[in-house]
Structure formats: C-alpha cells, structure tokens
Amino acid sequence: MDFQSLGNTSVIGLQWGDEGKGKVVDLLTEHFDLVVRYAGGANAGHTVRIGAEEFALHLIPSGILRPNVLNVVGPGVVLDLEILSAEIEGLKARSIKVENNLQISNRSHLVMPYHKKQDRLAEANLGADRKIGTTFKGIGPCQADKMMRSAALRMHDLYHPETFRRRVAEILADRNKLFATVYGDNEPLDAEQMASDYLRYAEMLSQHVTDTTLTLHDAMSRGDRMLFEGAQGSLLDIHHGTFPYVTSSTCVSGGAAAAAGVAPSAIQNYIGVVKAYATRVGGGPFPTELEDPTGDKIRERGREYGTTTGRPRRCGWFDAFAARYCASLSGITQLAVMHLDTLGTFQEVNICTGYRYRGETLRIFPAELEVLNEVEPLYETLPGWSGDFTGIESCEQLPEGARRYLDRLEELLEVPITLVSVGPDRLATLHRDTSVMSC
Ligand code: GDP
Ligand code: IMO
Ligand code: MG
C-alpha cells in the first residue's frame, strides 16, 4: 500500500464487527496527523498488539498509541464517561500519553447509567429467543433518546451543572417509573448521585472537551491528513445490516463524514477490513456459521472471544456474497484481510459465493430475517494451507494455498487486497502490491 499517496482515509468493517479495525488503524496511524473515532460507543473493542503489550480500546481512537497524532472523538460517538475515564486512566498507567493529543466533541451524546440499565431490562424482557444479544453498554437506549431529543444529554450539558442536575432528576423520575411499570423493577436509580458522578467525570475530562468540528475544519485547511476509525461492521449497520440484530448506528462509509462533521468529499479512500473467515457475537442470522469442530477450531486458533464482553464469538466460513454487498455499500477502495494465519492447517477451505433461497439464487444480500434464516450458502472449496507464518515478510513467501485464497477473495469482491495480516502483532502484516493484483 502506498501510504504517502493515500488521501483522507476511513477504515470500515465489512462483516459483523471485530474484523481487526484497531490493528489496521494502528498500522496506518503513523502516516496521518489525526485519527477520528466517529461512531458507536463503548460497545466497540479495538485491539492493538505491540510485542508483548496488548491494548483494548473502547472509546479512544486506536491512534492514541502514537504520541504525535491528534486523536478526536467526534460528535457521533455516544460516550459512557465512566468507561471513558477508566480508559484514560488505564492508558496513563501504562505510560501512554493522553494529554492534548485527545479531543472529545462537546456535541457527543452521553450514555447514562439508566441507559445501561434499560439495555439489560429490555434484553431480559425479550427473552432468550428474541433478545438482540447486545453488549449491555446502553447503546440502543442512548441512541433512542438522541432521536427522541427531549430526554437526551450531550457532553456540553455537563458544563452547566445546575441545569444538568435538574435535567437528570427530571429524566430519571420518568425513567424509574418506566422501569417499574414496564419491567417490574423496584430499585430506582438515584438522580443526585448520578449527576454528581457525571459532573466529577466532566471535571476530569474538561481539558479534552472541545468543538472537534472546528478542530477538523482547521486541520483540513492546513492540509493535515485524517484517518477515520470505523466501529462495528457493515452487517451491524442500522439501515443495511441483519436488522433487528444490528447496532443503533451507521457503520457503512456514508456515516463517517456525517458523524465526524466533515463533507463526504473530505474522505477519498475507504479501506474495508475483513477476516479471512467470518465471526459474529450476539444473536442474529449467520448463514455460513459452523457449529461444529471446524468452527471451534477457528475460535480457538483465532482467540475469538469478545474484546468488550468476553463472549465466545460464533465462527464460520468467509461469506464473499455478504462482503461484496458490504464493499459496494461503502465504495471500498482497498481491502485488508486479517487472520490469514488462523485459517491455516485446514485441508480445504470454503468460501460462500452466493445464497440459494427456495431454489432461486439471490442477487443481493436479503433484507428479511425469514429469508436469511433459510438461505442455503453456495460454497466454493479451495485447497487449504499450513505452515508457520512467523517471520514471513512478503506475500510471495506465503504458501501457495494462502496466495490462491487471497486471489480468489479479491476476484469475488472486485477490490484490491493491499494489506494482509498474519498475526495479531503490529509487525505481522504484509503489504500487497496492487499493481500486480496477485501475490
Ligand atoms: P476490531 O473490533 O475490528 O478492532 O477487532 P477486535 O480487536 O475486536 O478483534 C480482532 C482480534 O483479532 C484481536 O484480538 C486482534 O488482536 C486479533 N488479530 C488481528 N489481526 C490478526 C491476525 O492477522 N491474526 C491473528 N491471529 N489475530 C489477529
Ligand atoms: P467493534 O467496533 C462486534 C454487536 C453486539 C450485538 C449487536 C447490538 O469492536 O467491531 P449493541 O450493544 O451495539 O446494542 O449490540 O451488535 N456489536 C458488536 N459486535 N464488534 C463490535 O464492535 C460490536 N458492537 C456491537 O454483539 O450483537
Ligand atoms: Mg472489536
């Protein structure tokens, strides 16, 4: 990948999240002046491995690990201040600089403790069959309040303490009533305590809170280079994903500019991140899921346990039909393929190239759950590969099976693969020459 000629770039997950966006952002950060998280909230968990050190970032951009880069949390991110404060303290305790290199938008909406409680109560109320399988980070209830507007709180509200206290008391009076009447909950939350806690966090965070929209516009005028860090994945997108088993935000590329506060034309390059197989955490359809020893082997080899919740991730074959849909939703210009090492040791590997539904081959990833739950994935089988990828420095050194696999993914998705990851570490990454279009 020619980093120097990359324009402003956005990193987008093309599956159900956890594709390895954190690693890709960390790798690219040294070529940019700013890294901007623009969507989602603490439901995200982005892992960066540097030697023996592993960092799990939830709200802070993955660029924070490089001290000379400005990290911006944009207006589209919903902020749990308890988690944000703990994350900052955790990074500082590990000698990571978190000073004027972190800015937080004064327009960001607040995830309040009652949102997290509502998330749990709503999920429990849905029961095992219908629950979404959320991260319990209060994302849905916070986004719902944001859309309803009347009961929403934003970061800047914290700097008007008396109004903030009053509003928390009003909102909580209603919310406690709702919890009691709808969910039978009889442990009302305490408004005074909650407001005081949040005002304390606000004081701790005050040096970081600013109008980040101005920061980005100033950066653009200077010609600074910006990297936008997507959260979640396209199949979790509120409009285009496997609804209702999705998150409450826009995860496709179109959301980046809107949520960050720049014009769509300010972002020129969209890097789609995929794993060499597929994973999903939480409920919802997953046509290529492997509920068998092959799926278990992928989970164990890939350490597929949630970064945010620790839940085992569901694993399956790469779904090129779904990934192609996601790549076109976002106008993906380059692909990063992660976890090629994890897929090693199989005799054969499958790629899903299409779906059949009641005898018909579908043209596009279907909208209805009923269809998704019934589709038959159409597989193409390729020879597998084995061998230790440690020390491999170029794609040419990969086993033939792995190279053929990459070539086939590229053909099916019609987007050049420019980056291949063969281990969690920053250094376990291969750059792929796009002018050749094959390894
Ligand atoms: P994100 O949410 O998209 O940033 O991804 P996560 O961090 O939630 O999950 C990706 C996981 O895969 C993390 O544990 C990474 O350390 C790990 N990882 C990333 N790339 C590779 C790779 O190429 N090989 C292996 N074995 N692990 C990887
Ligand atoms: P990153 O950024 C994987 C999933 C949850 C659940 C659904 C809704 O690390 O890729 P929510 O708490 O958002 O209401 O849950 O979305 N989910 C993720 N899965 N990676 C994520 O983020 C996710 N963020 C949300 O598991 O199925
Ligand atoms: Mg993750």
Mean pLDDT: 96
Bound molecules: guanosine-5'-diphosphate, 6-O-phosphoryl inosine monophosphate, magnesium ion
Number of strands: 18
Q: Return the string of H and E elements.
A: EHEEEEHEHHHHEHEHEEHEEHEEEHEHEE
Specify the CATH architecture of the largest domain: Alpha-Beta Complex
Indicate the CATH topology of the largest domain. Adenylosuccinate Synthetase, Chain A, domain 3
- Structural class by sheet pairing and helices: alpha/beta
- The strands making up the biggest β-sheet line up spatially as 7-6-5-2-8-1-9-13-17-18
What is the name of the CATH class of the largest domain? Alpha Beta
Strand-residue fraction?
15-25%
Number of domains: 2
Instruction: Work out the helix count.
Output: 12
In whole angstroms, the N-to-C terminal distance is 13 Å
Oligomer: single chain
Mind summarizing the main beta sheet? 10 strands, mixed
The name of the CATH superfamily of the largest domain reads: Adenylosuccinate Synthetase, subunit A, domain 3
